[in-house]
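Milestone M4 deliverable, item 7.
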Amino acid sequence: MKLRGLLLVVLGVLAVVLALAVFIRGGVSTVCPAVGHAYTGDVELVFVHKPRSVSACFGEGCTPAPVDKSRDGRWLVPQSAPYLVPPVSVTSVFVDAVDSSGVRVARVVAIETEPTGEHPDGPECGGPFRFKPVQVPLG
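Output delivered:
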């Protein structure tokens, strides 16, 4: 009987220690809502050498459309027609560009993402993201 009593005391102490650890930590886990954060902003193309012309599109087998420089001198590809024809998950961009010496580059370039730093549901749940500028090698 003494062994059984000792075992019960040890199990009780372990249960109390475990309960305190969970209480101090703030719970066992965080429940995140099933919300996907889609980024619908422009994709910025960055070139090492100044391009003479740029065309781009999203999706496999897409048809590139001319891209105009923005007022602040950036090459921005909007996620809208004619560059994007739904349904396409934007993870890469097809770029067809010609530099000032006439060298042409036509390739698919991956788009990397980065967090915005805003966490509406807490940092454990991830949060909104944005696209990093896409480096396009020319020449």
